[in-house]
Amino acid sequence: MEKIGQLQTPFLQNQFMEKLQPEPQATGFGDVFKNALKEVSNAQNVSDKKTDQLLTGEVQDVHEVMIASQKASLSLQMTMQVRNKVVEAYQEVMRMQV
Predict the structure, then answer these.
(1) Alpha-carbon distance 37 to 43, whole Å?
(2) What is the pLDDT of residues 22-71, one digit of tens each?
(3) Dihedral, CA atoms, 44, 49, 53, 55, nearest 10 degrees?
(4) Nearest to 64 by CA among 77, 54, 75
(5) Rounded to whole angstroms, what are the CA distances from 50 to 18, 36, 91?
(6) Contact (CB, 8 A) for 47 and 36
(7) How far is residue 52's CA from residue 58's CA, in Å, rounded to a whole number?
C-alpha cells in the first residue's frame, strides 16, 4: 500500500504545481481593479466560447459549459457588488464635512 502512495504523490504534486501561476504585481487600487475586470472578461469569453462549442457539437459534456457559465456569472456579480461598495464609500466620503 505504501508503494502506491509513493507513485501517486509525485503525480498529484505535479498536477497541482502546473496550475500555479505567479500573480502579476499590482501597484495600486486601479491596477488591482483593472486586473479583476480582465479576469471577469476572460471568464465571460470562456463561457461564450464553451456555449458556442456546445451548440456546434464540439463539446459533449454539458457540465463544463454550465460550470464556465456559473463562474462567469458569479465573477460578474462579485464585480458589481465591489463596484457598489466603492460607489457607496465614495459617496460617504463626499458627504463628510471638512
Answers:
(1) 10
(2) 666 657 878 888 898 999 999 999 999 999 999 998 988 899 999 999 99
(3) 60
(4) 54
(5) 23, 21, 39
(6) no
(7) 9
Q: What is the CA radius of gyration of the chain?
A: 21
Q: Are 26 and 39 in contact (CB under 8 A)?
A: no
Q: Which three cell numbers stand for residue 54?
A: 456546445
pTM over 0.85: no
Distance between CA atoms of residues 35 and 37, nearest Å: 5
Collapsing DSSP to helix, strand or coil, 21 comes out as: coil
Residue 23 is given by DSSP the state P
Residue found by looking up cell 495600486 in the block:
28
Residue (of 35, 68, 25) closest to 50 by Cα position: 68
Taking the C-alpha atoms of residue 79 and residue 33, their distance in angstroms, rounded to an integer, is: 9
Residue 79: how many CB atoms within 10 A of its CB? Answer: 16
